[in-house]
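User: Structure please.
Assistant: Input sequence and predicted structure:
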Amino acid sequence: MTKLLQTGAVGAFIGVAIIVSAVDKKMNYVDVEAEILAVNQTCYLEKDEGNKTYFTDPMECNIAAAMKEAHPRYKDYRLMRDTELELWYPDPAVNAYAKTTLELSGNASHDELRPGEMMHVLAHKKKSGKVREI
């Protein structure tokens, strides 16, 4: 019974967090089109063994992929990606264009993103430099 209550409490907490995030996006952010100035992608290899997680230092993604394929030690590791975008966007907080960075969530490759291309982001209405993914 206690385990069921704990699971229900965790589920309710997650549900409230999702609702708060959605309300925050709706009330405090506006959709703007931003120009991608730079795409910085780093990778690392990661492996879970029991209660421990092992990972390599960050490196270029092509090197990490080659290590995973060629080196027997890293065969069981997952390729993990961190992507940071440098953006030029119309900042509604200051009514001017501004530069900011955006960390993309997830482990996707984001190979389709190139400098000079446009993308939609959510810009905070009152806090300059604060953006979120749509």
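The chain has one domain: 2-132.
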